[in-house]
Design brief:
Helix content: 25-40%
CATH architecture of the largest domain: Alpha-Beta Barrel
Structural class: alpha/beta
Number of strands: 13
Distance between the termini: 52 Å
Strand content: 15-25%
CATH topology of the largest domain: TIM Barrel
Length: about 325
């Protein structure tokens, strides 16, 4: 077992896991919060070379590795059934329960983080109720609460008080019946964002696991490439990758979306990557035909699914919804 040189760190180890179903080799690092995916390879020759390299490293450290199959979180999407995720914005109309069939996860946007408190943001109170969420649950739809957003007024102002943050979040989730949380920190400074995400994502998973909420979902919105706003750094922090159920990649330039996901697949389990699409006011709103092609590419290549910003009925057209469903091979 290799001992980390970082002050105060516990013992750390590396593990090599081979996934025969998708011809992938994963290299994981075990830190305080559990295993984090460091690298993956798909070419057989590279697999042999990388496996030998890791074995040599482990031998030099006096430890050993294993080739046990990689296990995703129980609340992660399966590779055989791609997901359709939609962000529902709470400043439009009171129609949460009318979100189109076919969307399997609805993310209510946005609440804010004010210090260590989760507070209503631009979700209008009259537009959100436990009854609406219960109606979606009856259809088998999961409903998450998104924290943050791109509006400068939504900056993650996190004061470092993890226990009170988790208690505040749990209170809001229980009040409405949410199935999990989405971290969508797009404002404030880059350092603030990095610190908040690297702290709160694994801490929230630990809280869920120890408070009877182990099946609850944790996602986060990542910028279009891992290098755009340091998402590669965030995902490399101890416990972050393992804590996440999936990532919603904001690949809103659909001409680059496939490349964006391929970049993330180099550092994160591709079965937990959602290709994001914008349909509200952007210069590059994809046509239904393009959405269907992207969704089919996602399914063919074993990614987690598609994300749509926005899924409110007054914005998302039936043609857009049906195109994604057809590409993913879901729905009626």
């Amino acid at each position: 077992m290799c001992r980390s040189g970082r002050a105060g760190a516990t013992d750390a180890a590396y593990r090599v896991r081979w996934i025969s179903e998708c011809d992938e080799l994963h290299v994981l690092y075990r830190g305080y919060f559990g295993y984090t995916l460091l690298a993956m390879a798909t070419h057989s020759g590279l697999r042999v070379a990388l496996g030998g390299l890791i074995a040599a490293i482990l031998t030099a450290c006096g430890g050993g590795g294993s080739a046990a199959p990689f296990t995703s979180p129980t609340n992660a999407p399966g590779s055989a059934t791609p997901q359709f995720v939609g962000y529902w914005v709470g400043w439009m109309q009171n129609n949460l329960a009318q979100v189109a069939p076919g969307i399997g996860t609805v993310i209510v946007s946005f609440y804010f983080v004010n210090g260590h408190s989760v507070v209503p943001g631009n979700v209008q109170p009259q537009n959100l109720s436990p009854q609406d969420i219960a109606a979606l649950h009856q259809r088998g739809v999961k409903v998450l609460l998104s924290l943050g957003g791109a509006d400068p007024a939504n900056a993650f102002v996190f004061d470092g008080d993890v226990p009170d943050f988790e208690a505040s979040l749990a209170g809001v989730m229980q009040q409405y019946g949410f199935d999990g949380v989405d971290f969508d920190d797009e404002s404030g400074t880059q350092q603030q964002r990095n610190t908040a995400l690297a702290t709160l994502i694994p801490a929230t998973r630990t809280y869920f696991d120890t408070h009877g909420m182990a099946n609850d979902i944790i996602t986060y919105a990542a910028f279009e490439t891992p290098q755009t706003i340091d998402d590669a750094w965030v995902l490399a922090q101890p416990g972050v990758a393992q804590a996440l159920s999936w990532i919603n990649v904001m690949s809103y330039d659909y001409t680059q979306a496939e490349n964006d996901l391929q970049l993330y697949a180099q550092i994160f389990d591709k079965h937990r990557l959602m290709l994001g699409n914008e349909n509200d006011g952007g210069a590059l709103i994809p046509s239904p035909q393009t959405l269907q092609q992207l969704a089919a590419w996602v399914k063919t290549n074993g990614y987690g699914g598609m994300m749509l910003w926005i899924c409110n009925p007054e914005v998302a057209t039936s043609a857009q919804i049906q195109a994604i469903e057809q590409g993913l091979g879901i729905g009626g």
